[in-house]
Specification:
The complex is a heterodimer of chains A (394) and B (404). Chain A starts with a helix and ends in a 9-residue tail after the last helix. Chain A has helices spanning 2-6, 15-31, 34-41, 46-50, 59-68, 86-99, 105-118, 121-133, 239-274, 286-314, 320-346, 357-369, 374-385; strands spanning 137-140, 155-160, 163-174, 181-188, 191-198, 204-208, 218-228, 233-235, 276-277, 280-281. In chain A, helix 2 (15-31) packs parallel to helix 6 (86-99), helix 6 crosses helix 9 and helix 9 (239-274) packs antiparallel against helix 10. Chain A is globular and about 80 Å long. Helices cover 52% and strands 15% of the residues of chain A. Chain A is built from 13 helices and ten strands. Chain A has 394 residues and is α+β, with helices and mostly antiparallel strands. Chain B folds into three domains: 10-128, Butyryl-Coa Dehydrogenase, subunit A, domain 1, CATH 1.10.540.10; 131-250, Butyryl-CoA Dehydrogenase, subunit A, domain 2; 267-397, Butyryl-CoA Dehydrogenase, subunit A, domain 3. In chain B, the strands form three sheets. In chain B, strands 1-4-5-8 form a four-stranded mixed sheet. A four-stranded antiparallel sheet of chain B has the order 2-3-7-6, with no helix packed on it. The longest helix of chain B is centred in the last third of the chain and has 23 residues, at 292-314. Chain B is α+β, with helices and mostly antiparallel strands and 404 residues long. The chains are: A alpha+beta (394), B alpha+beta (404). Chains A and B meet through helix 2, helix 9, strand 10, helix 10 and helix 11 of A and helix 7, helix 8 and helix 11 of B.
Chain lengths: 394, 404
């Protein structure tokens, strides 16, 4: 069974996945045009950048998304989910990135995959709420230094009777203001626990981060003696589950980057065909044409690595983390390159809020850093593929 | 006569090919072989490689998907598997690379039945080595600027002109030759021939020395050389169309008639060699593999190597390719630059040791990296420079306005 999956010639992207991806693409092109997106999140900078408002999003669209079953993607059928392959999920997240959809979908899918990995009754209950009722979820697992080590939690737990009490602050929590539950990892002595903390719990408060990206929110989450009952303790030994989910977390962000990068490429290509200077469409000039080809080549390599990572995750391959780091590195760099060229090749208009490019540029900049950029991934890869620096002796 | 008496299933054929390659691995070559088949220089190397190609051909690993009446093995969709298994087994490359990758697909598409019967068997078996007569001193990336003239004389054509960069020309029995048959039309004035070379009156092959100091390609002079009209491929004035078939086959859009790799090698193997080099090289007072910048550079290469492998796989999943030509048309550009950048990194990692030529016993990896770097420009320039490849991709895939 596993061998079959490893050898899957189509990365596990079959007819069901293609149908689901096409449906997502259709919904987004019908409901979230670039014009609609700009009207939604980028009418004017003042509310967000001057007054500190959270970037707007469309909760009605979230209701649609739940109805359409997107939150059920990573949930097993027994918990009311769709359970499509990781390649299918990656393809759908590519569409989400292509549309720059503001929503807590990616954190929710990330949390779903972690819950599946953890297993147990409490996790299953949450998964069925995610799939059936559109409960949105996010991860509170990152410390103040922005470490991307799966077990570097900033939170501390202590045992009080049958309950746990969590304290500390979790940083860089994605779309925290849109979700109903946080999966929080915390140190309990030498162990790592994973708890489900519902929005509104006593002692839980959200401090908004002021960010560039207009398509999400981000928060520092304060845990001031948050009491977690036994039914909300997902695991008392969660280190393995966190590490095992890591490839999927990297892969989801890589997919978002690939989709957004392709949108930037196609948008810039269209502009280069229309914009006339010196009596010719600027796409005629090789100084414009060749960088766009280079961007395409980079995006294609990243997409191939993305689906490879997805297939490795599905087959529970020991190479999954390596494949996911490669995908995240390639996607971060490909997106960074086309983000840069898209603004430059659009010229003046791309430097303004008149055009939607800046929305994608900022979303990509955020995603490049999330879970580590290309340089970070390659440092980790080198430790695996070349060996740690200290151990190399001649 | 094919050794197969029925259509083989892909899995069955793969097992057969794998086992045959184990059982028939050739002895080491009598002399060190150059990096790629197009640089083969000596008769000893040629004889060794020709014998190997014939063996592979007779085993059904070459011309696998070609019709039996044209010397092939009558299978369908199995050449790709044979190529993969030859690449995987790490056996020597096939010397008739021009014949297999370019000539055979072109003759199959444009040749008459008689031409297919005459030319394909020797091409597939490697008994008759082919070279390519496209480039001229004044016709490089701009292939339509052909000056070599062919003038009709009864049942023959009389050819005068000058071809350059002719790999394998010194061993070739035949050349695929583009000539100008009319000055009135730039493109419609071109005609394509299958031209005899070795010992043919009026044809002179002279070696050219390339950047590495090695010979390996040639210039070919035509002085009133006669070609029978029967050797014309497709119609008079159709040369440009036929040449495009050859070039798209060369650029990897087809499986060709057989390949054990171009000599560029398995990307993953190249990465392992770079890591090995970094681990064993003292440079600037430390081990190269400890240098964070070097580590990052190698990982960039490793990611691209995996990307190449996975793109080849994704190209066969239509649902994950919006445009079916998008990945295949990138092959030449991506692989040749990947190869060049690897070689350049090898030179960088080797540091002071990269100054050593292959004669020097202390040269790391027998002097491979600096020579590979020098040599890599052959591939980034040939078959349409990579600047032309970027034009093609920009225009055909992205739909940008044509540069001309």
């Amino acid at each position: 069974m596993l061998d079959n999956k490893t050898a899957a010639k189509d990365f596990g992207f079959g007819e069901d996945e293609a149908m689901m991806r096409d449906a997502v693409r259709r919904y987004l092109s019908d409901n979230l045009s670039t014009y609609t997106l700009s009207r939604l999140v980028a009418q004017a900078p003042e509310p967000i950048y001057d007054h500190g408002d959270k970037a707007p999003w469309d909760p009605h669209m979230w209701s649609d998304i739940v109805q359409l079953g997107w939150t059920a993607l990573a949930v097993e059928e027994k918990a009311g989910g769709t359970n499509i392959s990781m390649a299918g999920i990656a393809a759908i997240v590519e569409e989400v990135g292509r549309a720059a959809l503001p929503s807590p979908l990616i954190p929710t899918v990330s949390a779903s995959l972690m819950l599946r990995r953890v297993g147990g009754q409490a996790a299953d209950q949450l998964l069925s709420e995610i799939a059936g009722q559109g409960l949105a979820a996010s991860l509170a697992i990152t410390n103040a230094s922005g470490s991307w080590e799966p077990t570097d939690t900033p939170l501390v737990a202590r045992q009080v009777g049958p309950d746990l009490v969590l304290s500390g602050r979790a940083y860089f929590v994605q779309d925290a203001f849109k979700v109903g539950v946080l999966l929080a990892s915390a140190r309990l002595g030498d162990d790592l626990v994973l708890c489900a903390v519902r929005f509104g719990a006593t002692g839980l408060s959200l401090e908004q981060d002021h960010i560039h990206d207009l398509t999400r929110d981000q928060a520092t989450v304060h845990f001031d003696d948050v009491r977690v009952g036994e039914s909300a303790i997902l695991s008392r030994n969660a280190a393995d589950a966190l590490s095992a989910t890591w490839p999927a977390l990297l892969t989801l962000v890589a997919a978002d980057l690939c989709g957004a990068a392709e949108w930037l490429l196609q948008t810039t290509v269209s502009y280069a065909k229309e914009r006339v200077q010196f009596d010719r469409p600027i796409g005629f000039f090789q100084a414009v044409k060749h960088p766009l080809v280079d961007a395409m080549v980079g995006i294609d390599s990243a997409r191939s690595l993305l689906y490879h990572a997805a297939a490795e995750i599905d087959s529970e391959s020991p190479q999954a983390l390596t494949a996911a780091r490669m995908a995240k590195s390639a996607a971060s760099d490909a997106a960074a390159f086309i983000s840069n060229r898209a603004i430059q090749l659009h010229g003046g208009i791309g430097f303004t809020w008149e055009h939607a490019l800046h929305i994608y540029f900022k979303r990509n900049m955020h995603n490049q850093a999330l879970y580590g950029d290309g340089v970070y991934q390659r440092r980790k890869l080198a430790d695996t593929l070349i060996g740690p620096i200290a151990y190399i002796l001649l | 006569m094919s050794i197969f008496n029925k259509a083989m299933e892909p899995q069955e054929f793969r097992q057969y090919a794998r086992q045959w390659l184990v059982d028939n691995a050739p002895p080491p070559p009598p002399e060190r072989l150059p990096i790629t088949p197009i640089e083969v220089m000596t008769v000893k190397q040629r004889d060794y490689l020709q014998a190997w190609q014939r063996q592979c051909y007779e085993a059904g690993l070459i011309g696998t998907d070609y019709p039996v009446e044209y010397g092939g093995h009558g299978q369908s969709g199995l050449q790709r598997i044979a190529n993969q298994e030859m690449e995987r087994a790490g056996v020597p490359y096939l010397i008739n690379i021009v014949g297999l990758n370019m000539v055979a697909p072109t003759i199959m598409k444009h040749g008459t039945d008689a031409q297919k019967r005459q030319f394909l068997p020797g091409c597939l078996s490697g008994d008759e080595i082919w070279c390519q007569g496209f480039s001229e001193p004044g016709a490089g990336s701009d292939l339509s600027n052909q000056r070599t003239m062919a003038v009709r004389d009864g049942d023959d054509w009389i050819v005068n002109g000058h071809k350059v960069w002719t790999s394998l020309g010194h061993f070739a029995k035949w050349m695929i030759l583009i000539t100008r048959t009319s000055n009135d039309h730039r493109y419609e004035g071109l005609t394509y021939f299958l031209c005899p070379i070795a010992g043919h009156p009026g044809v002179t092959v002279r070696p050219l020395i390339k950047i590495t100091g090695e010979t390996g390609f040639n210039e070919v002079l035509f002085e009133n050389a006669r070609i029978p009209d029967a050797n014309r491929l497709d119609d008079i004035g159709k040369g440009w169309t036929v040449a495009m078939t050859t070039l798209s086959a060369e650029r990897g859009a087809a499986e060709g008639a057989g390949s054990a790799g171009s000599g560029v090698g398995d990307p993953a193997v190249t990465i392992r060699k770079l890591i090995e080099l970094a681990r064993t090289t003292q440079r600037g007072g430390g081990v190269a593999a400890n240098d964070p910048i070097t580590r990052d550079a190698i990982m960039q290469r490793a990611i691209l190597a995996e990307g190449l492998r996975q793109s080849a796989k994704r190209a066969r999943v239509p649902a994950l390719c919006d445009d079916p030509m998008r990945l295949p048309l990138q092959t030449k550009l991506v692989i040749t630059e990947f190869d060049q950048d690897n070689a350049r990194l090898g030179v960088e990692i080797a540091g002071a040791h990269a100054t050593l030529y292959k004669r020097d016993p202390r040269a790391p990896a027998a002097g491979h990296w600096p020579l590979a770097y020098l040599n890599s420009f052959g591939n980034t320039i040939a078959a349409g420079t990579n600047e032309i490849q970027r034009n093609i991709l920009g225009e055909r895939v992205l739909g940008l306005p044509k540069s001309k």
